[in-house]
Specification:
85 residues; 5-stranded mixed beta sheet; Nedd8-like
């Protein structure tokens, strides 16, 4: 299926994915096209951050869906340092 990833600048990246693709694999495809390492990517769909270990099907993605890409701030791993995440 074809999906789009929209950056904060409004640029749209078209990707061809399968329903069983994990979010981590989608991030790898974004890296191939944009050169942004997956560790710096945060993908948002339906107003929620997508977890790397979930699949496109888990999020009910359909062809034509648009994900939003935001970049993680550089620095320490927030998940490791915050008990609230």
């Amino acid at each position: 299926m074809q999906i789009k990833v929209r950056t904060l600048t409004g640029k749209e990246i078209e990707l061809d994915i399968e329903g069983d693709y994990k979010v981590s694999q989608i991030k790898e495809k974004v890296e191939e096209k944009e050169g942004i390492p997956p560790v710096q990517q945060r993908l948002i769909y339906g107003g929620k951050q997508m977890a790397d270990d979930k699949t496109a099907t888990d999020y009910a993605l359909v062809g034509g869906a648009t994900l939003h890409l935001v970049l993680a701030l550089r620095g320490g791993d927030a998940a490791a340092s915050s008990p609230f995440l």
